[in-house]
Design brief:
By secondary structure, this protein is an alpha/beta fold. The longest helix is centred in the middle third of the chain and has 15 residues. The N and C termini lie far apart (43 Å).
């Protein structure tokens, strides 16, 4: 059974889906809770049961700490669905230190798939845990930010600024 809830983040409400094995999906911050729930329904349609309030509060606190750099995301139990290639990409992204960035090509080489930068970009775009598996830290080879979930480049910039990887505008 997949349970879901809306959690507050420093950048707005996000929706989370949790299986018995860990966090299955987490949306990017949305303008409001209803938008976060709609986004979660697209990436994890089976998450219909509510998450018990004590677990929701615990998860919200932990996510806040991870986003603010006060906790490591590696302490979370994760259960994302994806191909072996996607999981390898997501694992490599999880190794990028807070406040640093890596290119799509670096990720490809890191997982032994040199030349697969475009495939890495596609796997990055399919990341169901964008606030936990920090795909905002993956940029283009020329240092530009590249793309981000449906053109929400402002959010990628905000996350990188929050981590100190970009100077404030």
């Amino acid at each position: 059974m997949i349970r879901s809830a809306v959690v507050s983040t420093p950048l707005g409400p996000a929706a989370v889906a949790v299986s018995t094995d860990g966090i299955r999906a987490l949306t990017l911050p949305a303008p409001d809770a209803a938008a976060a729930i709609r986004a979660l329904a697209r990436i994890c349609p089976g998450a219909t049961e509510p998450l018990p309030e004590p677990r929701r509060l615990e998860l919200e606190s932990t996510l806040h700490d991870v986003l603010m750099g006060q906790a490591n995301a590696r302490t979370l139990s994760l259960d994302p669905e994806g191909t072996a290639f996607q999981r390898a990409v997501w694992s490599a992204i999880g190794e990028i230190p807070r406040g640093e960035t890596r290119s799509y090509g670096w990720i490809a080489a890191h997982i032994g798939r040199r030349g697969a930068a475009r495939a890495v970009g596609q796997a990055t775009g399919a990341n169901p845990l964008p606030l936990i598996v920090p795909c905002h830290r993956v940029i283009a080879h020329d240092g530009s930010l590249g793309g981000y979930y449906g053109g929400r480049l402002h959010l990628k910039r905000a996350l990188l600024q929050m981590e100190g990887a970009l100077p404030p505008i």
